[in-house]
Each structure stands twice: as structure tokens, then as C-alpha cells.
Amino acid sequence: MLFGLLETFNGSPLLLYLSVIGMACAAGGIPPMLERKRRRSIENALPGLLEGLSDTVGAGRGIQEAMMEQSRNLQGPLGALLVQTLEESHSSSFDAALSAFAAKTRSSQVQRVMVLIETAIEQDAPLQQILSDLSMDYERLNDLMNTREEELLGRGLLIVMFVSIGLPVLIAFIVGLFAPASSGFQIDSFNQTFALFFGAASAVALGVSGRMLGRFKDALWWMPLWIALSMGLYLGAVVMIGG
């Protein structure tokens, strides 16, 4: 059975090529995942930073002093970036330091907040109230984003798992049970066609899942690997079940 399985894969050079390409492309798909995790960690910590700044400013301290105090209390990437920015602010203006901090986070939320803080300082607006309102607004926003992402991630993963794994194995079980190679059925071309179909279906499922989550470009990195997995599962299951 093992040799028959290997022969099946040897007769599918496209599957072998996709496997190699998929493993190589997977290395390119990991950095976007890590960057997104880092960015979301910063954005989820943003409301806590704003609330702390609001309390400190309300106690009569300046915004720069408030940020120095919060940098000592914050954990994670946001706190590390804030410490680095404040250290660099000694050789530049505070406004330039805020702009540099927003750019380093690579987060649109943080960039908008820094612009609002700079504008509030220039207009001599009530900074404590602005920071408090921003904290509540971004806390609600991040809660909604996290809930939506969890729901869509579950649905997207279900689509990919069903189309790329469940469906090929199910059809392979039916084909192997009713048209086994051990009984003399010559359906190699049929199996190759179905393998290509499941590969294409897997690519579509992954694209739909990526589009749902707003990560279509990131999903492209994983597409060759999922296509190879789907094709390999079908061809391998047909050989194992049909003999």
C-alpha cells in the first residue's frame, strides 16, 4: 500500500512541485501573521494607555510627563516603543517624537490618536476629557473588531477545512469503496482530474476565507501548500481505501 501511495504521487508531478513551492511560500506567510499579531497587541493596549494618560493629566501633570509615567507601567510592544520614543525625544521635539512613535507602531489607530493629541495640544483643548473619550471609543472599537475577527476566523477556517480536507477524503472514500483499483478499475485519469478539481476548490476556499478576514494577500502565501494538501489527501486516500 505504501509503495502504491508513493507511485500515485510520482504520477502527479504537479503535486510534487506544489508541495515544494508551498513549503517555500509558507515561510513568506509567517512574517505577515507575526506583524498582524504585533499590531493588534498594540491596538488592544491603546485604550489602557489613553486611560492612564487621562488620569495622569487630570492630576495636573503635563502630557510628556504622563507618557513617561505610562511607559514604565505598560507591558508589551506598545510600552517598549513608548520608552524608545521618549528616550529619543531628548534629541528632538516632543511633537517629532509623537510622530515617530505613531510611525513605528504601523497602526492606523495609534496614528490617528497621536494626530488628535497633537491637535489638542496646539488648540489648548481640554486634553483630559479628549483622552478619556478616546479611551472609551477605542475600547469599544477593539472589542467589536476582536469579536468580529473571532467569528469570521471560525467560519473561514471551517470553509477551508471542509473544502480542502473533508471533501477530498469523503469523495476518495466513495471512489475507493465503489471503484477500487484492486478490482481492476482503471480510473487513474479520473483521479487526476478530481485531484486538480479539489486543488482548485481549495484555492477558492482559501481565497474566500482570506477575503472574509480582509487578509487576501496574506492568504496567497499559503495557497500552494493547501492546494498540494488537498490533492495529496484525495490521491492518497483513494490508494489507501481502494488498495
Structural class: mainly alpha
Sheet bearing the most strands, described? Answer: none
Principal-axes shape call: elongated
Number of strands: 0
Instruction: Count the DSSP helices.
Output: 9
Q: How many domains?
A: 2
Q: What is the mean predicted local confidence, pLDDT?
A: 85
Distance between the termini: 6 Å
| Secondary-structure element series | HHHHHHHHH
Estimate the helix proportion, in percent. over 70%
Radius of gyration: 27 Å
- Portion of residues in beta strands equals under 5%
Low-confidence stretches: none
Question: What does this entry look like structurally?
Answer:
Helix 1 packs across helix 9 (216-242). It contains nine helices and no strands. With 243 residues, it is mostly helical. The longest helix is centred in the middle third of the chain and has 52 residues, at 127-178. The protein has two domains: 2-33 and 146-242, no CATH class; 38-143.
Keywords:
243 residues, mainly alpha, 2 domains
In brief, what are we looking at here?
The protein has 243 residues and is an all-alpha fold. The chain has two domains: 2-33 and 146-242, no CATH class; 38-143. Helix content is 87%, strand content 0%.
Layout: helices, strands, pairs:
Layout: H1 2-10, H2 13-58, H3 63-73, H4 76-88, H5 94-105, H6 108-122, H7 127-178, H8 188-213, H9 216-242
